[in-house]
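Narrative summary of target 7.
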Amino acid sequence: MDGNDARTDAELIAAANAGDVAAFEAIYRRYRDWAVRLAWRFTGNEDDALDVLQETFAYLVRKIQAGQATRRLGLPLPGGFRLTSSMTTFLYPAVKNLSTVARRKSGRFHSDDDALAAFPAKDDPPAADSDLAAALASLPEGQREVLLMRFVDEMELSEIAEALAIPLGTVKSRLHNALDELRQNPRVKRYFRG
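Modeled conformation, tokenized:
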């Protein structure tokens, strides 16, 4: 959480809906690093990731402004953006979709293993990083995505299901299969106990 503002995400969104610019800035500071790391993972390119970061928060601003306009016009629609899940659950699909667009526009494709190589694990020698990146790259895309959401983005299984718009059982199955496949991989077996 952002150390400068103790309010919850829901409180910050409510304040932003009321026009509090500082509340939006707190949300931005709280999630910008997460969003750019995620965008980097999808695009494999720093410039594209930074563009996606901007577009993601511009999207959030538009959501908030649409609610403000609705209230100003006195329309009988509910005013303001409503956060019905965690902020990462809301932002994940936006970052993913905007990253896909950025990758298409730039004509470049970089896989997750390229992005993972840029973020070495703590206390691991370089050879271990390449082994882990190769093992992750060998996973089917759906399994790799769920695994990274769970352990890199630290999302709960229900949040992953909501962010990807898939059943919880599918998330559990993909995660189980990914972990099982990694356990079987001799290059990364040392990461698993027992």
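DSSP finds nine helices and no strands in the chain.
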